[in-house]
Amino acid sequence: MDTSIGVLDSRLFLSKEDFAVWDCHTEGKGVFDGKPHFHDFYELSYFYGGEGTYTVNGVSYPARAGLLTLATPSDYHMLSVGQGKSLHYYNVIFREGFLSETVTSPIYRKRRPTVLQPEGEDRERFFAAMREIFEDYVRESQEYTPPLTARLVKNGVESLVIRMLARLGEGERGLSESEDETVRRALLYVREHYRERLTLPEVAQAVERSPGYFSGYFHEKMKIPFSEYLLRFRLLAAASYVSSGDLPLKEIAYLHGFRSFGYFSSTFKSYFGLSPRDYRAASRR
After folding, report:
1. Taking the mean position of all CA atoms in its chain, how far away is CA 56?
2. pLDDT value of residue 1
3. Rounded to whole angstroms, what are the CA distances from 104 to 70, 141, 214, 236?
């Protein structure tokens, strides 16, 4: 099993700040190309050139100019670019808590992935908003982002996400349930109950499918067994507590659904390259 790409650690992409903004260029056969992954931060992207495929929670979309995506820590996603091709996009990543709960809460109640393909004037407005966020950020491109610049970026991202959710809400009116809704409901259930003794049959019952059908369908759509998805989700959630709090490590393990600290410690190290204790120490340097 390749765990080097399955779980991305925010420490590799964010310093002590809560966010970062880039103008990205991705080519086929790159480090992340075609490799599904989680990360413990949100990722907002606006594609403005090239072509590829964006897949989130088993649903694929053509990644082309105008596509706007928002991946949460609950979303298992990947970007695929064909050999000899490339993609260009603005990218904003930010930690949990960067945006207000009023803005992030509706994301988890949606019946579709947070993906929008605006057209016409809408497309131009979203592009201008993302470009302004990027320009505000790089104008003060130092190791430390001044508070006023950070506020500009935060306000810009929050406004863009609100507009994005409004457009998606309009498109969901009258939307009938599909098989993809099965996966979406399952992921929401995991997010709400991952601290408990969660089992595949329990989740299958919650989404009104038989365990056998749900197991096969989840694996087919997500390209990962349900048990592995649940493990990675728990590890990501636990990592944020390990790095940012003072709770005893054994208590963190128990709070995130691990009934054996030894198992938690060994799997944590296999994914993040450090034991929970060393991970905490490294996060505080």
Report:
1. 9
2. 35
3. 11, 27, 28, 18
Q: Alpha-carbon distance 108 to 71, whole Å?
A: 11
pLDDT for res 68: 97
Instruction: Let me know: does 97 contact 73? Beta carbons within 8 Å.
Output: no
Half-sphere exposure of 56 (CA within 13 A, CB side): 23
As a whole-number percent, the residues of the chain with pLDDT over 70 amount to 89
Q: Hunting for tokens 């409901």 — which residue is that? A: 185
CA 184 from centre of chain: 14
Residues in the chain: 285
| Whether pLDDT at 102 is above 80 | yes
User: Which of 175-189, 246-260, 268-282 is the least confident region?
Assistant: 175-189
What's the token pair of residue 89? 């996009």
List C-alpha distances in Å: 15 to 12, 18, 86, 177, 218. 8, 8, 27, 41, 34
Task: Decide: 26 and 87 in contact? Cβ < 8 Å.
Answer: yes
In 3D space, the residue among 11, 44, 49, 13 whose CA is nearest the CA of residue 156 turns out to be: 44
| Concatenated DSSP letters of 58-111 | TEEEEE-TT-EEEE-TT--EEEE--TT-EEEEEEEEE-TTSS-HHHHGGGGG-S
CB contact at 8 A, 43 and 10: no
